[in-house]
Amino acid sequence: MTATAPRTARGEKTRRKLLEAAEHVFAELGYTEASVSRITERAGVGQGTFYLYFDTKLRIFEELVEDLNHRVRQAMSEGAASATTRLEAERAGFAAFFRFTAEHPALYRVIREAEFVSPESLRLHYTRIVEGYIDGLRLAQLDGEIGDIDPTVAAWALMGIGEMIGMRWVLWGSGEGGAGDDADPTASGTTAVPEHVLDEMMRFIGGALGRGAGRSDEEDS
Range of 62's domain? Predict the structure, then answer.
């Protein structure tokens, strides 16, 4: 799914312009209605230039999924870099994800369309995110920070929490004059999840990652 690699800085800049244009066009029109001509028009380049970097509309769509995935994982990793505990890392990582979503609301529509346009890209997107989660949770278990949970199940559950909270409060806005529109899941809403929502979210996650209700004090003695 890798496109032709540019050989010069100018070529890389052109490729980036095409990906940014594709991000907007696919979000606004959807995959079916989007076209190479619309992408090149938005990027300000000729159609012939497009084919120097991407073979087809599908190829740039798949490359866009991979690009968004790389950038959102990088944002989350950088956000959590200074955390000293697993819960701090979770909170900082989620906050970074929400900021990225506010800046790139196309992420939601593009990823959802990938289910039908390129299922392989969809699976790769989620798998790459979950792999990082699993590694972090396993390390936290070894350090005694979290309870005896299945890291794989927890990782998928955590990703689902972040995705739904981001949709409700970032894309759709606060419902109190926020920029989002409840009828449009691709709308850019608030720039951050409200603190009280993030607090409640982390309280829930903290309980889920802890020792759990199924263990008693006698089991610890």
Answer: 58-211
